[in-house]
Design a protein that fits this description.
306 residues; single chain; disordered C terminus; mainly alpha
């Protein structure tokens, strides 16, 4: 049975902290007009693939198990690399931070739903309770302790994109724990990640073709944009995906999903640090609620340990 231990917790926290940095970097790049959303996703993963190639190139040899499981990896690449990131950057172009992160915080709910409908894993009551507690913590972060702010939210096209991105990521996480006939868990980590990035890059390039055809693709490359793109290609791509895969396999997709609620908290803290603002009391309260939600959701698994 999956268990939440210290190592798994560190993996999941590392992934979410780096993805918080991705949200900030992506927002800067897209909102400033430095790069179009899908072009950013394609360039990011193309660079990540080049950086990983020296370690993962053997996955492309003729005898590689990748070719026997190409349909599975095309789906993994679509849900985890190709769609999620393009949809996230598209959402950041039109939606507000409060909408994007609140909708993204619904991931535990989608994880429970997909597990129940497609993987015959019935959600436990404590998991639902934990989801609600964590969601309250996220709301406190995003409203800076003033929950009445939620009443002024307006729905825009970007909200639909982030909702779709959240669903695809939930499905991707479930697929990681259900390899079926694939022996991917015996592969070297770099080859497994390389296979996902390669498949995702195919999808991203396909989507980018539509952006180019519509005349909406652009890239203003300079020192600062290149630095930010390099960051998202290494931290939120290579390191985060490796850590998330280890965390999901260790804790299970449902418990791991609760850690995604740390992304808005880490984003708020990083933003405050960049602006020179000290953490506020509501940050501590939100952290406590998110941790409580994770603890409650995983408590039944702990009580069932021999």
């Amino acid at each position: 049975m999956p268990q939440l231990n210290l190592a798994t917790t560190i993996y999941l926290l590392t992934a979410t902290a780096l993805w918080a940095g991705n949200a900030i970097a992506g927002r800067v790049l897209v909102a400033s007009g430095a790069v179009s959303p899908i072009t950013l996703s394609t360039v990011r993963w193309g660079l990540a693939a080049l950086l990983l190639l020296p370690l993962g190139w053997r996955v492309f040899t003729p005898s590689s198990a990748l070719w026997r499981n190409k349909k599975r990896f095309l789906l993994l690449g679509l849900f985890g690399v190709g769609s999620y990131n393009a949809l996230l950057y598209l959402a950041l172009e039109t939606s507000t931070a409060i909408n994007v992160t609140l909708i993204g915080a619904s991931m535990p709910i989608w994880m429970l739903f997909i597990g129940a409908v497609f993987y015959q894993t019935k959600p436990r009551l404590l998991q639902a309770v934990g989801a609600v507690i964590s969601l309250i913590g996220v709301a406190i972060v995003l409203t800076r302790g003033d929950l009445s702010t939620l009443l002024s939210m307006q729905i825009v096209l970007g909200d639909f994109f982030i909702m779709l991105a959240t669903i695809t990521w939930a499905w991707y996480s479930w697929m990681l724990t259900k390899p079926g006939s694939s022996n991917e868990r015996q592969w070297p980590w770099a080859q497994f990640l390389m296979a996902q990035i390669f498949a995702g890059l195919l999808w991203s390039g396909f989507f980018n073709g539509f952006e180019i055809a519509a005349g909406q693709a652009y890239l203003d490359l300079n020192f600062w944009t290149a630095s930010l793109i390099l960051f998202v290609a290494i931290g939120p791509s290579l390191i985060s995906y490796r850590c998330w895969g280890l965390g999901v396999n260790g804790a299970g997709p449902t418990v791991a999903a609760f850690f995604a609620n740390f992304i808005p908290l880490f984003t708020a803290i990083l933003s405050a640090a960049i602006l020179g603002e000290p953490p506020q009391l509501f940050h501590g309260l939100a952290f406590a609620l998110i941790v409580t939600g994770i603890w409650v959701s995983s408590s039944q698994g702990r009580s069932n340990k021999p």
